[in-house]
Design brief:
There is one protein chain. The protein has 4 helices and no strands. It is mainly alpha-helical. The radius of gyration is 24 Å and the shape is elongated. The protein has helices at residues 10-23, 28-44, 50-61, 70-77.
């Protein structure tokens, strides 16, 4: 386990106290761990939803379109 001395705002301190009470945690270290774990799940590497995977596979199976230049791409979609 790593120990750290940190400086947080009064607002952050209140939030950690709320998390500590909500989850019945012993101390703010556990509250910080909960926040970090939730951040990891939500932001860093969220699991792909099944409907997203299905749509991505559907798109992947579509034939590719040869565009050529950026000018050709603009002409194609500015109609």
């Amino acid at each position: 386990m790593v120990q750290a001395i940190i400086n947080i705002t009064e607002h952050s301190n209140r939030i950690l106290n709320i998390i500590k009470a909500k989850y019945g945690l012993k101390d703010k270290s556990e509250a910080i761990n909960v926040v970090v774990e939730e951040y990891e799940k939500a932001i860093l590497e969220p699991e792909l939803r099944p409907e997203y995977v299905k749509e991505a596979l559907k798109i992947h199976k579509q034939p590719s379109i040869k565009v050529g230049t950026v000018g050709n791409l603009k002409k194609r979609y500015e109609k």
